[in-house]
Amino acid sequence: MLSNGELFWPKTFDHTHYPALTGDETCDVLVVGGGMSGAITAFTMARAGYRTILIDRGMVASESSAANTGLLQFMSDKTLADCIKDFGEEEAFEFYQLSFQGLEYIRELCTDLPADVEFQNRDSVLYASKKRHDNKLREEYVALRKFGFKCDLLNSRQLSETYGINRSMGLVTHGDAEINPYVFIQRLLDKAVNTYDLHIYEQSELLDWHEGSDGVNCHITGGRITARHVIYAGGYADNTFVKSVKKKQFVRSFAVVTRPIEDGAFWAEKAMIWETARPYLYIRHVEGNRIIVGGLDDNNKRVPSERLIRKKSRRLVREFRKLFPDIEIAADDCYGARFGETTDGKPFIGRVPDMSHCYMLLGYGGNGTVYSAFGAKMLLEMIRGEKHPQHDIFKLDR
Ligand SMILES: Cc1cc2nc3c(=O)[nH]c(=O)nc-3n(C[C@H](O)[C@H](O)[C@H](O)COP(=O)(O)OP(=O)(O)OC[C@H]3O[C@@H](n4cnc5c(N)ncnc54)[C@H](O)[C@@H]3O)c2cc1C
């Protein structure tokens, strides 16, 4: 496990169990990893008509996706303005546009899933942590508007009157959403199994892969799978498969889920809230009138101790109170988990160098869910043999 403490989402749903692999199988697409990335990818491949198998070394939806706090935002940790400075306008816009489309894809998938996935459209409020960050927000507002993303800039009075946040400036983005990632993954996989004949094996770990004349031969605990294409979506596992991927770093992130509060006690429209400081604090509403407060990331990839989690949780509650002194909260579940980032702010999606039928989808970054969603579609294009310029943006050996 790459997390410690009490996770909230697994208490909201009875986990569906799948058998372990025993023996040998063949398929068109093997997806390795049953978290957010693997689940959306397996669904996408199976729906497109590929005979698809998904394996997980543990249980689906149980690693970082069970810790995922479920904010779906088209804005990345790296602002559009910063992306423009680093990658140029065209690539930066492409990245943001793809994230927006990733969010749209999740929205579309949720229309056919039961309501307990708790998908809810929300605005996001990005507030200036310090007065000197106002210019950053102004700059971001101009960049987002230029490329057609809907947003509003609020001065301190508007921010305080609308959201009760006493900071110098805020940027409100429209078109974001919140979700229960744990239930979403399981509902999506359930649909893929029952409608598109996806096969799932839990407790089945990919140990090794080799390309041969008959396809990719995968050595898995319990058996072998020969697949035409293999997509590795192993999350933040630090193993031999991801060793060659540079520009990545593992950190830890922390979150608190509060006890329910009065419905009337919430800020306007239960918007999702985050800030310009890095690492940033973020806040969201959860079905049942709870609140998630997350952040306080640190540069350490070890699973955090219970003691550290308690300390970070107390601080998260204090930070929340600084922002909303009139909202009384008490922590219920507190946890910390490993989290992956990239040094250039972009996820890794693409073909494994020196292999022709093996791919990776590593949605590293705070927006991992929307990266998983557009990454799944991108991998479908690659498997179909389509070539698009945007495929190069996220390649593994960049
Ligand atoms: C505290 C926290 C909060 C977060 N909040 C958000 C958020 O609000 N919004 C957002 O978009 N993202 C968020 N994230 C990031 C988010 O967790 C991820 O982007 C996403 O859920 C990761 O999904 P994944 O499938 O890549 O990885 P995981 O969920 O970790 O799944 C990977 C799976 O691969 C399996 N696996 C690994 N190696 C093998 C192998 N060799 N063989 C078989 N199986 C293997 C593992 O068992 C695991 O189940 C958060 C992360 C953390 C830690």
CATH level-1 class of the largest domain? Alpha Beta
The helix count comes to 9
Task: Give the CATH superfamily of the largest domain.
Answer: FAD/NAD(P)-binding domain
Bound ligands: flavin-adenine dinucleotide
Classify the beta-strand content into a percent band. 25-35%
The portion of residues assigned to helices is 25-40%
| Element-level helix/strand string | EEHEHEHHEHEHEHEEEEEEEEHEEEH
Please state the oligomeric state of the protein chains shown: single chain
Distance between the termini: 29 Å
The CATH architecture of the largest domain comes to 3-Layer(bba) Sandwich
Q: Give the biggest sheet.
A: 10 strands, mixed
Helix and strand composition category: alpha+beta
Which stretches of 5+ consecutive residues score pLDDT under 50?
none
Mean pLDDT over the residues: 96
Shape: globular
Counted up, domains total 2
Q: What is the CATH topology descriptor of the largest domain?
A: FAD/NAD(P)-binding domain
Number of strands: 18
Radius of gyration: 21 Å
How would you explain this protein's 3D organization?
The protein is α+β, with helices and mostly antiparallel strands and 398 residues long. It folds into 2 domains: 3-68 and 182-247 and 345-394, FAD/NAD(P)-binding domain; 120-175 and 249-340, 2-Layer Sandwich (D-Amino Acid Oxidase, Chain A, domain 2). It has 9 helices and 18 strands. The chain has helices spanning 36-47, 64-67, 80-87, 89-111, 134-146, 156-163, 181-196, 306-323, 368-383; strands spanning 3-5, 23-32, 52-55, 71-72, 120-127, 151-155, 169-178, 199-201, 206-212, 215-220, 223-232, 248-258, 272-275, 282-286, 290-298, 331-342, 348-351, 358-362. Helix 1 (36-47) packs parallel to helix 9. It is globular, with a radius of gyration of 21 Å. The model has no long low-confidence stretch (mean pLDDT 96). The structure holds flavin-adenine dinucleotide.
